[in-house]
């Protein structure tokens, strides 16, 4: 059975991913690196509560068949730009560095639709630079997932995001063709697609939101 590492297991997508991996017989050990406990008791879990900005100090424990990085923050939670970059850029890049160092063959990281290192929007620019730097490491298989707005209830209050989710839910049936990738997507779809790609591979390194939904459906239909 395989060992998987999750970064961000206490978040919306990471939490769903954790539950899915715990129920998957292909995985015997799930290693969590988090700043706070996931509060999930299971024999498969090996949990390390650490300062994620010092992830490199735990390189000897960072060993697995696959690494799933679901780390991310928002401007409302992290208004300081430098801290924001340390989270959304620094942690995923450090994880990629450790994958290379420890010969971990598969790295899967959640980015965002519209990620572009030259984008004028700070959020998209940080994600774009993260993608570029992650891909510079010598890892056998790296997959970058670029979801649209993630549907689901979060603990923190995000009024603008809630309005956008309602609007996108209303217009979703009308979003066809090239507009499909702008549809909101559930954390369950993202988590399911990540596990599917980890075990089956994918022709593309960067996977857009509509393709994520299609992969999730493919996995669901194969069960």
UniProtKB/TrEMBL annotation:
<protein>
    <submittedName>
        <fullName>NAD(P)H-binding protein</fullName>
    </submittedName>
</protein>
<dbReference type="InterPro" id="IPR036291">
    <property type="entry name" value="NAD(P)-bd_dom_sf"/>
</dbReference>
<feature type="domain" description="NAD(P)-binding">
    <location>
        <begin position="8"/>
        <end position="133"/>
    </location>
</feature>
<dbReference type="Pfam" id="PF13460">
    <property type="entry name" value="NAD_binding_10"/>
</dbReference>
<dbReference type="InterPro" id="IPR016040">
    <property type="entry name" value="NAD(P)-bd_dom"/>
</dbReference>
């Amino acid at each position: 059975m395989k060992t998987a590492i999750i970064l961000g297991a206490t978040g919306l997508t990471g939490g769903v991913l954790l539950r899915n991996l715990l129920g998957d017989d292909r995985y015997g050990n799930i290693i969590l690196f988090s700043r706070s406990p996931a509060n999930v008791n299971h024999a498969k879990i090996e949990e390390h509560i650490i300062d994620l900005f010092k992830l490199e100090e735990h390189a000897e424990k960072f060993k697995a068949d696959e690494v799933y990085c679901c780390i991310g923050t928002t401007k409302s939670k992290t208004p300081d730009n430098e801290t924001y970059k340390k989270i959304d850029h620094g942690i995923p890049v450090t994880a990629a560095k450790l994958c290379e160092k420890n010969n971990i063959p598969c790295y899967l990281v959640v980015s965002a639709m519209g990620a572009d290192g030259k984008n004028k929007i700070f959020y998209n620019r940080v994600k774009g630079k993260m993608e570029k730097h992650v891909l510079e490491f010598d890892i056998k298989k790296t997959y970058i997932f670029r979801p649209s707005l993630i549907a689901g209830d979060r603990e923190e209050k995000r009024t603008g995001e809630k309005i956008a989710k309602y609007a996108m839910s209303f217009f979703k049936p009308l979003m066809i063709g090239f507009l499909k990738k702008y549809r909101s997507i559930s954390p369950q779809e993202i988590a399911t697609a990540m596990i599917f790609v980890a075990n089956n591979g994918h022709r593309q390194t960067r996977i857009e939101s509509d393709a994520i939904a299609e992969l999730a459906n493919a996995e669901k239909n194969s069960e």
